[in-house]
Specification:
- The complex is a heterodimer of chains A (307) and B (137).
- Chain A has helices at residues 2-30, 157-160, 293-301; strands at 56-65, 73-85, 88-99, 104-116, 125-135, 165-178, 181-192, 199-209, 226-238, 249-258, 263-272, 280-290.
- Chain A is mainly β and 307 residues long.
- A 12-stranded antiparallel β-barrel of chain A has the order 1-2-3-4-5-6-7-8-9-10-11-12.
- The longest helix of chain A has 29 residues, at 2-30.
- Chain A is globular and about 55 Å long.
- Mean pLDDT of chain A is 88; it is low at 25-36.
- In chain B, helix 4 crosses helix 8 and helix 7 crosses helix 8 (123-134).
- Chain B has 137 residues and is mainly alpha-helical.
- The model of chain B is unreliable at 27-33 (pLDDT under 50).
- In chain B, 40% of the residues are buried.
- Chain B contains 8 helices and no strands.
- The radius of gyration of chain B is 20 Å and the shape is elongated.
- The chains are: A mainly beta (307), B mainly alpha (137).
- At the A-B interface, strand 2, strand 4, strand 5 and helix 3 of A face helix 1, helix 4 and helix 8 of B.
């Protein structure tokens, strides 16, 4: 009984110290000024724009869908995106999901880096993307590759979470800006480190702000604060069978609302175009950008040289 | 079982630690601009002749001021007076350069030296920023 009490006390203390840590972290982050950056509305497609150097963007991205013959799920993806340099962005994701009539689980993490290949802006701007992911029972649908299908989510969480997927993902991102329009194309190659063949996919998106010129007054609902567009994404088979047959293909309108206080809200209803795709999926995104985050972290560890 | 759990925890903690260390080690997010004159001298000749469609428009100056507060103030400081990461923009270089050169520089940036490319902003908004910068003096 005494051992149980001690254990419960220890758990309670650990919970309290964790809550304390989170509270301190949030207050400290809140002291960094929030800014608005050039946030695009895409959920799957990457454009050529990097995170502003020294800024941290924190985003929560829930996605919900219901597979045919299965239960609805809600996946949550928390993203920490940091502008290491103007040509280099690094990101860390934590993922989880809950499925109706099943438990809520943590499904894994991913780390990614994006690098501008060319030093200056061209008509088409290539960006190299490298990612490592360690997930199980993942339903975030952050990308669609190979023969990904809605049937994958029919496997109960209890079984699916035993199958840990350690994968390396590469993307070649091409992005162009023309008269306010952003046009982005991604070629995706994903390799399961367990030895499966390479899986391929693509994403393509176009978007534009609702007004090209800014208004002279501060406002939340100005048309220039909204961006709208559409993205298409899907699988292209594997290195053994490169095909569109039995792949999932989606078309998804996207809308982003950039608020002047640093928050961006995004929404995207996605429509499955093939039998293997989910009929409908809904993505939401809420993000905050913290200006000068890197500088604040650095000051914690170094003397104030610049002050 | 406990050992597997510790290995799992390590697999999450190591990439998280790498991410945090990247932030700490490269926290400044790029170097300061080395010299505006040198950068502007690389602008193509064609852009020197470009005219600012908003030149002299008070509304555009106000819009540019708003855009500056959103995108530029964090590096160049309040009133464009300069800050640790970005130079003062109330300088003869900004005043004397043709508007097309400033527009070109905003579009291209100098990513290797800390100035991001603002090609994601529509051209109209970049011109509004140029209008504001030209009216700083």
């Amino acid at each position: 009984m005494t051992t149980l009490n001690k254990r419960s006390n220890r758990i309670h203390k650990t919970k309290l110290s964790f809550q304390y840590f989170i509270a301190v972290f949030l207050v400290w982050m809140g002291s960094a000024a929030m800014v608005r950056a050039q946030e695009g509305p895409y959920f799957v497609t990457y454009d050529q724009h990097m995170e502003e150097p020294g800024n941290l963007e924190v985003e929560f991205e829930p996605t919900t869908a219901k597979p045919q013959g299965g239960d609805r799920f809600l996946s949550g993806l928390t993203e920490f995106e940091y502008g290491t340099a103007a040509w280099w962005t690094t990101e860390f994701y934590l993922e989880g999901q809950m499925t109706r009539n099943e438990n809520t689980i943590f499904t894994g993490f991913r780390v990614e880096n994006r690098f501008h290949i060319l030093p200056s802006v061209h008509w088409i701007n290539p960006v190299l993307y490298l990612e490592y992911e360690d997930t199980a029972a993942d339903k975030a649908l952050k990308e669609v590759v190979g023969f990904d299908s809605q049937d994958d989510s029919l496997v109960p969480n209890g079984i699916a979470r035993r199958n840990i997927e350690r994968e390396v993902e590469t993307k070649l991102i091409f992005g162009s800006d023309y008269k306010g329009w952003n046009i982005s194309e991604n070629l995706i190659g994903e390799k399961n480190l367990a030895g499966d063949p390479w899986e391929f996919g693509y994403a393509f998106g176009v978007n534009r702000p609702l007004a090209l010129a800014a208004s002279s007054e501060a406002c939340n609902f100005c048309r220039e604060n909204f961006r709208a567009g559409i993205e298409f994404y899907g699988g292209l088979g594997t290195s053994k069978i490169f095909t569109l047959n039995q792949t999932s293909q989606y078309a998804a309108p996207v809308v982003a609302w950039n608020l002047p206080d640093g928050m961006t809200l995004r929404v995207s209803p996605g429509f499955g175009l093939t039998h293997d795709a989910y009929g409908f999926l809904l993505r939401l995104g809420v993000s905050y950008e913290f200006e000068g985050f890197g500088r604040k972290v650095q000051l914690l560890f170094h003397s104030r040289r610049d002050q | 079982m406990r050992r597997i759990k510790s290995v799992k925890r390590l697999l999450i903690l190591i990439p998280a630690a790498v991410f945090i260390l990247t932030v700490i080690c490269l926290g400044s997010g790029g170097k300061a601009n080395p010299g505006l004159t040198a950068v502007f001298s690389r602008a193509p000749k064609a852009v020197r002749k470009q005219q600012n469609p908003y030149q002299g428009q008070h509304e555009a100056t106000l819009a540019g001021k708003k855009l500056f507060a959103r995108y530029c103030i964090q590096c160049h400081g309040s009133g464009a007076k300069g800050y640790a990461r970005g130079p003062c923009l109330r300088s003869p270089e900004i005043r004397d350069e043709p508007p097309g050169v400033l527009y070109w520089f905003l579009k291209n940036g100098k990513p290797r030296e800390g100035m991001p490319s603002w090609s994601g902003l529509p051209g109209q908004q970049r011109w509004q920023l140029v209008t504001y910068l030209k009216n700083l003096h």
